[in-house]
Specification:
The complex is a heterodimer of chains A (508) and B (470). Chain A is built from 21 helices and no strands. The radius of gyration of chain A is 26 Å and the shape is globular. Chain B contains 24 helices and no strands. The chains are: A mainly alpha (508), B mainly alpha (470).
C-alpha cells in the first residue's frame, strides 16, 4: 500500500515537470490551442451543415478542411510534445520544417494554425519576430476578408487599389520578417534594419498596430544608449507577449482596427445601407456570406462597416470620461479637503444612478443620435474613472518622491502632470481597455432598444435588431452580428487581462 | 439611559458642529431653555471668579508684557519674511490681540487645574443641561416637546445605528441631487413632449394648454421647486401618456422585477460561487482555465443576444419553454433568469476566484492547515470567509442593478418590469415617469449600498470593531 502511494507520487511529480516544460514551450501551447480550436470549429460547422434541411457542398468542404487541419495539427503537436519531454535539446529541425506545412492553411481563415506554424518554424523567437509575424497575419487576414467581395456581382471602384495596397504591404511585411531574422537578434538591432523600421511605422496608416509597434521598438532599442538597461515600455510589451491569450485578444483588436480602415477602400458602402429587393432575406451564400436582411442589405458588409462605428464610439466614449474623470479624480485626490468633498459628493450623485439608466435618461432628453449616445455613455462612466484616479493619486501623493518634488519647489501642476499621473497610469490603462469593450456592449444594447445609434447606420446592435424580427425564419441575421460583438468584447477583455498582468509591478 | 450618560452624550454631540445644528432643529425647546440657563449662569459662577482672579494676578506679574514682546517679534519676523509692508501701529495691534488671547488661554488652563482641586468646573451647555435634567418636571416636558432630539441621542450612542442614520441622512441629499440632475437634463432637452403626445397636427393652442396643465410653461426654478415638493410628499404626479399615477404604476411593476431579480440571483450564485471556489483551489488547472474562459465569455455576450439565442433554441426549435413572459407562469421565468444570471455569474465567479487566491497564501491559512483542520473547513470557513467582502460587494452591486430593472433583457423576454416601463416612456419623454423611475432606482441602489456596508460589519469582525469606535 505504502509503496503504491510513493509510486503514484513519483508519477505525479514527473507529470508536473512535464507540464511545466510543455507550458514553457511556445511551440506546444500554440499548437495545442490550434488543434483544439480547429476541432471545435469543425464540430460546430458539421453540426450547422448536417442539421439543416439541405447540405450545402461548400459548407461540407469547409468542415472537411477544418477537420483535416485539426488532424495535421494534432499529429504535429504530439510530435512536439514527445520531443519537448524526452530530449534536452528540444524540438528537432525535422519537426521545425513541418511548421512550413502549416502556414498555407491561413487561407482558410484559421489564424491559430498560422501562428502555431510560424512559432514552430523558428527556434529563437524574439519580440520583433513575433510582432512581424502578427503584422503579416493581420495584413493577410484583411486581404482574405476583402477578397470575399470578389464573389459579389460588382465591387467598389477602389477595390483593386485597396487590395493592391494591402498586397504590396503583405509583400513588404514578408520581407520585414526576413529582415527581422537577419538583423534584430543581436543585443541591438542592426543599422541596416532602420529603413525597414520606417516602413513598419507607415503601417499605422493601414491600421496595422503590430507593424507600428515593431518599428517603434526597433528604433527605441537602437536609440537606447545603455545596453545593460532595457527600455521600460518595451519590457511591458515583452511581458504582454508572454501571455498567449492576451496576444490573441490584441490580434483581434488590431484586426478589427485594420479592417475598419481597409473597408473604406475595399467594401461597397451602398450594399450595406441601400435597399435591394432582389436579395431580400437571401440565404447565406458565397456572394452574401452572412445572408441578407429584410431590405436586401448584405449582413456581412454591414458587420464590417459596423466594426468602425463600434470602435469609434467605444474609443471616444472611453477617452472623454478618462479626461474628465481623470482631472476630477486627480484634483480631489491631490488637493483633498473641501474640493475633494465637493467633487466626491457630485460623483456620489452620478454613481447612484446605474450607468445604463443615466444613458437612457440623457438620450430621452436629447434624442437619438450618435453624438448624444457618446455623450450619454461618457457621462455615465465618469465616476468610475474619477474614483480609480483619485485612489491612485491619494496613494502616490503621500510618497517620498512627491515630497521631494515639493521640497524642490515644483508647482502643483508640474507635480500632478509630471510625477503623479505617469505613476498612476497602469490601472487606468487596464480599466480603459476593458471599458472600450463594455462601451461597445452598451452601444449595441442601446441600439437594440432603439435608443442608440440612428437606425439607418449599420451598427451591430441595429443589425441585430433587424434580425430579431426574423428569428424564426432567418436566424442567421441575428446570430452573426451577435458573434461579432462577442468577439470584439472578448478580445478587449483578453487584452485588458493580459495588460493587467504585464503592468503589474509585482510580476516584474 | 441614566442621566449621567444622557448629559455626556449631549456633550459629545454638542461638540460636533453638524450634530449641534441637528440638536437645535430637533430639540428646539430643550435647547432654548438650556441656552438661557447657560447665558444667565455664565460669568457668575465659581469658575469665572477663579479665572478672573488668576488673570488679574498674571497681569500684575507682568506675564502679559512677556507675551506681548514675544508676539510682536513673531509678527515682525513674519512680515519681514513675506516682505509685507505693514505700519508699526498695525503690527502692535496684532501683537496686542495675540498676547491677550494667549493670556486668556494660559489663565484658563491654570484655572481648570485649580478648579479640579476644589471640584469646580466651567459652565458649559452640557453642564447646564445636566443640572436641568435633575429637575423631573423639566425632563418630562423636554421629552414630550423634543422627542426627536432624544431619538437622535438614543441612536447616537449605538455605533451601528448612528452610522445608518448618518448614511440615510446623506442619502436624502443624494436623492435630491439625482432629482436635480435628471430634472435639469430633461429641462434643457430639445425634446418636446407636447408635440410627441398630441401628434403633428396639434394646434399651438393645444400645445400651450398641455404645457399649462403640466406646468411646463413655468420658469425653471418654479418647476424644480414643484418637483422637490412632490418628492417630499411622495407624489410624483401622473404620467403624460395614460395619465396614471407614477408611483402606483412603478409599484405595480415592482413584484415582477423582484421575482426576476430573485431567480437570476439564484442562478448566478449557484453557478458562480462553486465555480469560483474550485478555480481558486486548483488554479491553472484545466477546470480553472475553462471556467474562467466561460466567465470571460459570459461578460462579453450581450444579454439580448443570449436571450434571442435561447428563445431560438428552446422556444422556437424545441418548443420547451415559452418565448415570452407570462405572469403567473413560473416556467416563463427560466429564460430571463438564465440570461441575466449567467451574465452576472461571470463577474461574481471572477471576483470569487481572485479574492480567494489572495487569501489562500496568508499565514493564517497555513496555521489552519497545520493544526490539522479538515480541508473542507479550511476552504469554506477560513479562505472563503475571509474572501467574502469583495464577493458581497459584487453581488450587492449586481442586485441593485437588477432591482433597477434589466431593461434590455426585459425587452427581449417581454417582461413588463420597471426597466422596460422606463424605456417605453422615454421616447416621449414622459418626464414624471423617467424622473420617478430614476429616483426610485437610485433610492434602491443607495439602500443596497448601505445594506452591503452593514453586512460587512456582520461578516468581518475587524470592520465590526472599527464600527464600534465610530
Amino acid at each position: 500500500m505504502a509503496k503504491e502511494k510513493t509510486d503514484r507520487k513519483e508519477d505525479f511529480y514527473l507529470k508536473k515537470v512535464y507540464k511545466r516544460k510543455l507550458s514553457g514551450s511556445l511551440e506546444f501551447t500554440t499548437a495545442k490551442l490550434s488543434y483544439q480550436v480547429s476541432f471545435v470549429l469543425a464540430v460546430v460547422l458539421a453540426w450547422l451543415t448536417f442539421t439543416g434541411e439541405t447540405v450545402s457542398p461548400v459548407m461540407a468542404a469547409v468542415t472537411g478542411v477544418y477537420a483535416f487541419e485539426g488532424v495535421i495539427q494534432l499529429l504535429i503537436a504530439q510530435r512536439i510534445r514527445k520531443e519537448v519531454i524526452q530530449s534536452d535539446q528540444g524540438i528537432t529541425d525535422g519537426t521545425r520544417k513541418l511548421g512550413i506545412l502549416l502556414l498555407p492553411f491561413v487561407v482558410t481563415g484559421n489564424f491559430f494554425i498560422f501562428i502555431a506554424g510560424a512559432m514552430l518554424v523558428k527556434k529563437e523567437k524574439n519580440l520583433e519576430y513575433q510582432l512581424a509575424i502578427y503584422s503579416l497575419l493581420v495584413t493577410i487576414f484583411v486581404i482574405i476578408i476583402s477578397s470575399l467581395n470578389l464573389f459579389k456581382e460588382y465591387v467598389v471602384s477602389t477595390f483593386f487599389i485597396g487590395l493592391g495596397l494591402y498586397g504590396l504591404y503583405a509583400v513588404l511585411n514578408f520581407i520585414i520578417v526576413l529582415a527581422v531574422n537577419k538583423y534584430t537578434f543581436g543585443k541591438k538591432p542592426d543599422k541596416k534594419f532602420m529603413p525597414f523600421a520606417v516602413i513598419c511605422l507607415f503601417g499605422i496608416g493601414l491600421g496595422n498596430v503590430f507593424a507600428f509597434m515593431l518599428g517603434l521598438i526597433a528604433i527605441g532599442k537602437y536609440r537606447n544608449k545603455n545596453e545593460e538597461v532595457s527600455v521600460e515600455w518595451i519590457d511591458v510589451i515583452k511581458r504582454l507577449f508572454r501571455n498567449y491569450t492576451a496576444v490573441i485578444g490584441m490580434f483581434l483588436v488590431v484586426f478589427f482596427i485594420t479592417i475598419s480602415i481597409g473597408s473604406n477602400l475595399t467594401f461597397e458602402y451602398s450594399v450595406a445601407v441601400e435597399n435591394n429587393f432582389m436579395t431580400r432575406l437571401a440565404e447565406p451564400s458565397l456572394a452574401y456570406p452572412f445572408g441578407c436582411d429584410d431590405y436586401g442589405r448584405c449582413v456581412f458588409t454591414r458587420i464590417v462597416f459596423g466594426a468602425s462605428i463600434s470602435l469609434i464610439i467605444g474609443i471616444i466614449s472611453t477617452i472623454v470620461p478618462i479626461i474628465f474623470g481623470g482631472i476630477l479624480g486627480a484634483v480631489s485626490g491631490y488637493y483633498g479637503g473641501k474640493r475633494d468633498n465637493a467633487i466626491m459628493r457630485v460623483m456620489d450623485i452620478l454613481n447612484a444612478v446605474p450607468s445604463i439608466l443615466l444613458a437612457i435618461a440623457i438620450i430621452a432628453a436629447f434624442g437619438v443620435s450618435t453624438v448624444n449616445l457618446i455623450l450619454a455613455l461618457s457621462v455615465s462612466s465618469i465616476p468610475a474613472y474619477a474614483r480609480t484616479v483619485r485612489a491612485q493619486v491619494l496613494g502616490i501623493s503621500n510618497q517620498e518622491f512627491v515630497e521631494a518634488a515639493k521640497a524642490c519647489g515644483a508647482k502643483n501642476g508640474t507635480i500632478i502632470f509630471k510625477h503623479i499621473i505617469p505613476n498612476s497610469l497602469a490601472p487606468i490603462i487596464v480599466q480603459a481597455t476593458m471599458g472600450i469593450g463594455s462601451a461597445v456592449l452598451s452601444t449595441s444594447s442601446l441600439s437594440y432598444l432603439g435608443i442608440g445609434v440612428e437606425p439607418h447606420i449599420p451598427e451591430w446592435g441595429n443589425v441585430l435588431k433587424a434580425g430579431s424580427t426574423f428569428l424564426e425564419t432567418n436566424p442567421y441575421i441575428a446570430i452573426y452580428p451577435g458573434l461579432a460583438i462577442i468577439i470584439i468584447v472578448l478580445a478587449f477583455n483578453f487584452f485588458g487581462d493580459g495588460l493587467r498582468d504585464a503592468l503589474d509591478p509585482k510580476l516584474k | 439611559m441614566n442621566k449621567k450618560k444622557m448629559s455626556s452624550t449631549f456633550a459629545r454631540m454638542y461638540r460636533n458642529s453638524q450634530y449641534r445644528i441637528c440638536l437645535w432643529i430637533l430639540g428646539f425647546f430643550t435647547m432654548l431653555v438650556t441656552f438661557f440657563t447657560y447665558k444667565s449662569k455664565k460669568g457668575k459662577d465659581q469658575f469665572a471668579k477663579i479665572l478672573a482672579d488668576l488673570k488679574a494676578e498674571y497681569e500684575r506679574q507682568g506675564l502679559k508684557e512677556q507675551f506681548y514682546k514675544e508676539a510682536l517679534r513673531q509678527v515682525q519676523k513674519k512680515n519681514e519674511y513675506f516682505k509685507k509692508k505693514v505700519s508699526e501701529s498695525e503690527e502692535k495691534k496684532q501683537a496686542e490681540a495675540i498676547a491677550e488671547k494667549n493670556l486668556l488661554q494660559y489663565s484658563r488652563d491654570k484655572a481648570k487645574e485649580r478648579g479640579e482641586m476644589s471640584n469646580v468646573s466651567e459652565i458649559t451647555m452640557a453642564s447646564c443641561y445636566e443640572d436641568l435634567l435633575a429637575n423631573p418636571a423639566f425632563l418630562a416636558v423636554s421629552v414630550i416637546l423634543s422627542l426627536p432630539m432624544y431619538i437622535l441621542m438614543f441612536l447616537y450612542v449605538r455605533p451601528i445605528a448612528k452610522y445608518v442614520t448618518e448614511r440615510l441622512f446623506l442619502m436624502i441629499f443624494v436623492l435630491f441631487g439625482v432629482t436635480w440632475l435628471v430634472f435639469t437634463i430633461l429641462y434643457i432637452a430639445p425634446m418636446d413632449p407636447a408635440t410627441n403626445i398630441l401628434g403633428p397636427t396639434a394646434t399651438q393652442e393645444q400645445i400651450d394648454s398641455f404645457n399649462k396643465v403640466y406646468g411646463l410653461d413655468q420658469p425653471y426654478l418654479t418647476q424644480l421647486f414643484t418637483t422637490f415638493k412632490s418628492l417630499i410628499t411622495f407624489d410624483l404626479g401622473n404620467s403624460y401618456q395614460g395619465n396614471e399615477n407614477v408611483i402606483v404604476a412603478l409599484m405595480s411593476k415592482f413584484p415582477v422585477t423582484l421575482m426576476v431579480t430573485f431567480w437570476s440571483m439564484l442562478v448566478a450564485l449557484i453557478i458562480s460561487i462553486p465555480a469560483g471556489i474550485i478555480s481558486a483551489i486548483k488554479p491553472y488547472s484545466t477546470f480553472d482555465y475553462l471556467a474562467m474562459f466561460i466567465a470571460l465569455l459570459g461578460l462579453s455576450i450581450p444579454n439580448f443576444w443570449l436571450g434571442l439565442m435561447l428563445i431560438l433554441q428552446f422556444s422556437i426549435e424545441l418548443g420547451w419553454l415559452p418565448a415570452t413572459f407570462q405572469p403567473g407562469n413560473a416556467v416563463s421565468f427560466i429564460i430571463p433568469a438564465i440570461v441575466i444570471g449567467t451574465g452576472m455569474s461571470a463577474s461574481i465567479a471572477r471576483m470569487t476566484r481572485s479574492s480567494m487566491l489572495e487569501v489562500k497564501n496568508s499565514d493564517y491559512i497555513l496555521t489552519a492547515r497545520s493544526k490539522g483542520l479538515m480541508e473542507k473547513k479550511v476552504v469554506l470557513k477560513h479562505i472563503l470567509g475571509n474572501a467574502m467582502i469583495p464577493i458581497i460587494t459584487m453581488v450587492g452591486m449586481s442586485f441593485s442593478n437588477l432591482m433597477g430593472g434589466a431593461a434590455v433583457t426585459e425587452k427581449v423576454s417581454g417582461i413588463n418590469g420597471i426597466g422596460s416601463y422606463i424605456v417605453d416612456k422615454q421616447f416621449i419623454p414622459d418626464i414624471p415617469v423617467v424622473l420617478a423611475g430614476v429616483v426610485y432606482i437610485s433610492f434602491i441602489v443607495s439602500l443596497m449600498n448601505l445594506m452591503i456596508d452593514i453586512l460587512y460589519a456582520l461578516i468581518d469582525p475587524r470592520i465590526k470593531s472599527k464600527m464600534k469606535n465610530y
